[in-house]
Amino acid sequence: MELIQKYFPELTEKQAGQFAALQELYTDWNAKINVISRKDIGNLYERHVLHSLGIACAIRFREGTKVMDFGTGGGFPGIPLAILFPGVQFKLVDSIGKKVRVAREVSEAIGLENTTFAHERVEDEKGLFEFVVSRAVMPLPDLVKICRKNIAREQHNALPNGLICLKGGEVENEIRPFRHEALTWELKDFFEEEFFETKKVVFVAINKGKKS
Fold first, then answer.
1. DSSP 8-state secondary structure symbol assigned to residue 176
2. Tens digit of each residue's pLDDT (9 = 90 or more) over 150-168
3. Residue 25 belongs to a domain with what CATH number?
4. What residues have CB less than 8 Å from 140, skipping those under 6 apart?
5. What is the pTM of this model?
6. Which of 15, 52, 63, 187 can pair with 199 through a Cys bridge, CB separation 3.0 to 4.6 Å?
7. What burial letters (b/e) apply to 80-91, b meaning 16+ CB within 10 Å?
8. Which of 195, 107, 123, 206 is nearest to 164 (CA)?
């Protein structure tokens, strides 16, 4: 928990309490439904919570923004981002029902009021969002192809509407088809822990609609 406050010292007491509750909740749920690698649960804050918050290094979502978490698993990056941005609406989507259940139960346990959940394939999701976020569930071209239909035209943020992914390692080949629409942030420039040495945030603009 100290790790989160180290990089996000502006947290309210409520937000700090919500982040602090995640360790026990995920440890408990992970014993029943494996949503995080068993050997990784002790690194929850570094490798899952702070990693999810890496998206905030690229953009601070404005109030009223709608975001879909594509392939949320047990709630990453959606739940940490929903804690950090309480005025933003997050829809967490996954095709595996038991993982959606964990994300929903954790969200309810910490009192999040800005999250909704769907057990479905993203191909079947009809909603419109300013952004789709994801923790590298598939190659970038496939992600863009699937979620393009879900990107709204009306814009409210500093970045154009589009896809924001957490990626690791070499991403040049994946980005090449989108080189005129893509931006990349190295998380090692923001977080000093060794885990982030090869981690990146990749943004692809999908809909450069009108700013409202």
1. G
2. 999 999 999 999 999 999 9
3. 3.40.50.150
4. 163, 165, 167, 171, 174, 175, 178, 202, 204
5. 0.95
6. 187
7. bbbbbbeebbbb
8. 206
> How many domains does the chain fold into?
1
What band does 80 get if pLDDT is binned at 50, 70 and 90? very high
Confirm whether 212 is domain-assigned. no
Residue 157 lies in a domain: yes
Residue 26 CA to residue 52 CA, distance in Å, equals 15
The HSE-up count of residue 32 (CA atoms within 13 Å, CB side) is 10
How far apart are the C-alpha atoms of 94 and 77, rounded to whole Å? 12
Q: Estimate to the nearest angstrom the gap between the alpha carbon of 8 and the chain centroid.
A: 16
Q: Helices 97-109 and 13-32 sit at what angle, rounded to 10 degrees? A: 140
The verdict on residue 31 lying in a domain is yes
Q: Strand order in 161-168's β-sheet?
A: 115-119, 89-94, 66-70, 131-134, 161-168, 199-207, 182-186
Query: How far is residue 161's CA from residue 154's CA, in Å, rounded to a whole number?
Result: 8
Please give the backbone phi and psi of residue 14, each rounded to the nearest 5 degrees, phi first.
-65, -45
187 lies in some domain: yes
Cα–Cα distance, 186 to 77 (Å, whole number): 17
